[in-house]
Write a structure and sequence with these properties.
The protein is of the alpha+beta class. About 30% of the residues lie in helices and about 30% in strands. The strands form two sheets. A nine-stranded antiparallel β-sheet has the order 4-1-3-2-7-10-6-11-5. The chain is globular and about 50 Å long.
Length: about 220
């Protein structure tokens, strides 16, 4: 039994396809790709050997052993540590919204997740919801009823092999919306359960939801007071 992580990879948009191919070779069929823009100065970009500030950001959920394997390949095959390579990092998941979501994310029915994150005593959590486009208001309505204050939406595209184009009734290679909600730890379960019940995999929103531990925040005091 091991840990599960959200793997975030940020690379130059021009070479993103090489990274997606490597992930697919390692059977990471459930990925979400969005676009970003680097903020480094031109001098820093020149120093790092980067030609463009345009970035691709890939999100995927991985098991601990999978990350160890992929990290080695990123360093050896794609030279991610070299100038112009990119960066990939992992964040431990603290909870996942049901067995269906777990199976969807890692496609391993025999896996048993650790009961809780290795980060203890965190007071807040980042709830991540990935859903079909057009259902953000529905998701936020049920989340607010359970105590959520608000959320931030980014657009992403699912990627996957042809054989995994549909998994558990969810189309992978379609436009998605990723919703980020910061909530108190004691409210997290209620919010996640509300989303699963009102906008989960059995609904038109086809939402999957998981959470990450947040070690500290700024800017939420007035809302909470």
């Amino acid at each position: 039994m091991g840990s599960i992580y959200l793997m975030t990879t940020i690379v130059d948009r021009k070479i993103a396809s090489k990274y997606v191919e490597l992930f697919q070779e390692n059977e990471l069929n459930v990925m979400y790709l969005t676009l970003g823009y680097g903020t480094a100065s031109s001098e820093v970009l020149d120093y790092l050997g980067l030609e463009s500030k345009e970035k691709a950001v890939a999100f995927s959920v991985v098991e601990e052993q999978t990350w160890i394997t992929i990290k080695k390949q990123l360093e050896k095959k794609l030279k991610i540590d070299a100038p112009g390579g990119g960066i990939s990092f992992i964040t431990p998941l603290s909870s996942i919204g049901g067995k269906k979501t777990l199976h969807f994310l890692i496609e391993n029915e025999n896996y048993q997740k650790e009961e809780e994150s290795t980060l203890k005593d965190t007071t807040r959590e980042l709830i991540v919801v990935i859903a079909e486009q057009g259902y953000t208001e529905l998701i936020m309505d049920v989340a607010r009823e359970a105590g959520a204050y608000g959320g931030t939406v980014i657009h992403a595209k699912g990627t996957g092999k042809e054989a995994a184009e549909k998994f558990m009734g969810v189309s992978l290679a379609t436009e998605k919306e990723m919703l980020f909600i910061v909530a108190k730890t004691e409210q997290k379960n209620d919010i996640m359960q509300a989303i699963m019940k009102g906008a989960g995999l059995d609904s038109k929103a086809k939402s999957i939801v998981f959470s990450l531990p947040v070690t500290d925040t700024a800017g939420l005091r007035l809302m909470e007071d």
